[in-house]
Amino acid sequence: MDCLSSTDKCQKIMELARRRGFFWQSYEIYGGESGFIDYGPLGALLKRKIEQKWIDEFVRKEGLMLIDTPIITPSIVFEASGHTTYFTDPVTTCKKCGRKWRADHLLEEKTGESFEGLTLEELYKKMLENNVRCPECGGELESPKFFNELFKTTIGPYSENVGYGRPETAQGIFSNFKRLYELARGKLPFGVAQAGRCVRNEISPRQGPIRLRELTIMEIEFFFDPENPKCEKIFEVKNEKLRLLPEKLLLDGVTEPIEVTVEEALKNGYIKSEWNAYFMVKAKKFVEMLGIPSEKQFFKEKLPNERAHYSTQTYDQLVELSRWGTVELSGHAWRSNYDLKMHMVYSGEDLRVFVPYNKPQKVRRLLVEPNKKALTKDFGEEALRVSRLLTLTQPEFIRKSLDENGFYELKGDGKTYRITFEHVNLKEVEVEEKGKRIIPNVAEPSFGLDRLFYATLEYAYSEKDGRVVLKLPRELAPIEVAVFPLMTKDGLPEKAKKVYCMLLDHGFMVEYDESGSIGRRYARMDEVGTPIAVTIDHQTLQDNTVTLRDRDTWEQIRVKVEKLPLTLEKYFREKVDFKDLAKLC
RNA sequence: GCGGCCGUGGUCUAGACUGGACUAGGACGGGGGCCCUCCAAGCCCCUAACCCGGGUUCAAAUCCCGGCGGCCGCACCA
Question: Is the CB of A95 under 7 A from strand B?
Fold first, then answer.
């Protein structure tokens, strides 16, 4: 099976996906639209099962809250989150044929280096240096411009009411923080999960199911106190091994991941947040449950210029795929308090959390009081936001900068405001505090469901005796059990249908098939990953036993019909090995 | 720096260079039947396609242009 060449394998999977109804390109009858795929009957089931597995592992077992918020989002939300400013990619246009391309991707193809995070000028300079041309017609390229990848729309009949399709589900969580914090009964830490459709107007998606314009993201925002960032469950995973490629080593030119325990990774500062480390272990195990062995995965830290605008540290979980090389399946960002802070600035809501002291403390505090008049004079409509932003900034920083430079550069939603002495009154006061108000920090594990789906298929794909066997993990199989009468006579179909109905009643996903030869029916089920086939033969009519046939070994055992639901229950829910099932019967 | 290739039933493809007998062939799949069977057996019947639009021509799957979609190589870099 490993002798398959990489394109071969991918082609075979894509073909299987179309032929058996896992997925295909959308809008085929109109020539297709790149960046969109349809999930077919089996694909839709498999996708849901992967999502369900994720909910089971993260929401149920980790005690997170699952929510579901809209795709369409009013523009102010993404102004606050910074996406209207930062969710952009450099696009360059061919002077000859007019085609548009991701400038950094063209450079990357050309040089093999990564060019994320360069300025437009730097990019253009590099493009000229490397003589990057239009891949389609060889024409000269214009200097790149930033293209915002948010899908824009209007809400209702008023064209000025702009909305965007969300590029991540996270903002639906952040904008609900207050209510969710209430539902968490006012205690940190707590986590919120969401799985849903997102849209990103990619400039030129060319990697099939890997780079989509409409995708499903499953993400968690885990809120914790930055002054008490300990993960209380870290001891459970401290000896777990992670394959890591941290920034420190990347900068030294290391290209192979190292294997370290979680404890070491934290001690060496490879991973800065315990909560992120904890979820990285969970992510490794989750991906393993999809059939992708841990030695095929590793986590690579994003360099500062590659990171998203909100991130303090990000690791990508990568996996090796046959055609597309190493591909990100999940990202693990430490989002600091960026999002909540910006939503405070834009909404005016207090999204801080009150953490009481054991007893009240008298403290001297430096206070920064915004001077409304001066702010309005200099910042007009933005004055209110500037003033909110000011009160959320460490007063000491402001004073230090004012003292040293005469001004302070207040950074917010992609803009920088120059604050001078006249904008603020600095006061030192003695106050009695009963507790502190903090903006929680956020650990964000974020998974791309479509990529997980593809990777699952690829790692399940195998061939045996010239036919395809899809070795999906049993709990992911879209069809769990197939029921076949050995022949279509002597009452075998009737008996088989009874067994089929009984299994349906017990909640299994079952398929009945009586067409063609028995071997052909087994083969069909192997190809779509059905783990168990139940066959009704002449012996069934005598002693009420059926055969169970294992997808991976093609071995068979006989089981009493009455014991069938229980046996399958053991197999699917309790993960009893096929060969041990016989002993139970 | 440069170039190239491809799009035909559900899937894989023949046909294209050299336009006409193509009513578009095959294999696999799928449906029905025979057979009555534990790993894609065999036989019969059926099913279903030239990516879209325009042009050239008496005639276009075939040539030209445009669109949509898919893909690759050399060189360079490491």
Answer: no
> A104-129: string of b/e by CB count within 10 Å (b at 16+)?
bbbbeebeeeebeebeeeebbebbee
Dig out the tokens for A120 from the structure.
């437009």
Q: What Å distances lie between residue A156 and A162, A352, A502, CA to CA? A: 9, 33, 50
The interface pTM score, or ipTM, of the predicted complex is: 0.81
Structure tokens at A266: 């934290």
In DSSP terms, A326 is beta-bridged to A320
Instruction: Encode A424-450: b = buried (16+ Cβ within 10 Å), e = exposed.
Output: beeeeeeeeeeeeebbbbbbbbbbbbb
The strand pairing partners of A420, in sequence order, are A407
Residue indicated by tokens 């900034």: A393
For A311-321, give one letter per residue: b (16+ CB within 10 A) or e: bbbbbbbbbbb
pLDDT digits (tens, 9 = 90+) for A427-458: 777 777 778 889 999 999 999 999 999 999 99
Instruction: List chain B nucleotides near protein: any atom < 7 Å from a Cβ.
Output: 1-3, 7, 10-12, 29-32, 35-42, 51-52, 67-72, 75-78
Give the dihedral of Cα atoms A180, A183, A189, A193; nearest 10 deg: -50
- The answer to whether the beta carbons of residues A410 and A392 sit under 8 Å apart is no
Total number of residues shown for chain A: 585
What lies within 8 Å, CB to CB, of A512 at 6+ separation is A482, A483, A484, A496, A497, A500
- Distance (Å, rounded) from C-alpha A206 to C-alpha A193? 30
Contact present, A486 and A479 (Cβ < 8 Å): no
Structure-block tokens of residue A442? 């956020």
User: What is the residue-wise DSSP string for A362-418?
Assistant: EEEEEEEEE-HHHHHHHHGGGHHHHHHHHHTS-HHHHHHHHHHHSEEEEE-SS-EEE
The closest nt to A32, taking CA to C1', is B69
Strand B proximal to A5 Cβ, under 7 A: no
A463 CA to B34 C1' in angstroms comes to 32
Find the mean pLDDT for residues A245-272. Answer: 93
Which nucleotide, over all strands, has the C1' atom closest to the CA of A34?
B69
Q: Are A371 and A379 in contact (CB under 8 A)?
A: no
Cα-based distances in Å from A428 to A275, A401, A431, A435: 36, 17, 10, 19
Rg of chain A's alpha carbons, rounded to an integer?
A: 28
Alpha carbon distances (Å) from A499 to A424, A519, A549: 79, 20, 15
Beta carbon of A518 within 7 Å of strand B? yes
Other beta carbons within 10 Å of A45:
18
Whether nucleic acid strand B comes within 7 Å of the CB of A483, the answer is no
The model's pLDDT over A334-358, given as tens digits with 9 standing for 90+, comes to 998 999 999 988 888 889 998 878 7
For residues A79-93, one letter each, b for 16 or more C-beta atoms within 10 angstroms of the residue's C-beta and e for the rest, the string is bbbbbbeebebbbbb
| Both tokens assigned to A363 | 């403290």
* Minimum-distance nucleotide, CA of A128 to C1': B1
Question: What are A495-549's pLDDT values in tens digits?
Answer: 999 999 999 999 999 999 999 899 999 999 999 999 999 999 999 999 999 999 9
Find the helix packing angle between A383-391 and A338-347, rounded to 10°: 140
Lookup: nucleotide whose C1' is closest to A109 CA: B77
**Tokens 């993404």 sit on residue:** A78
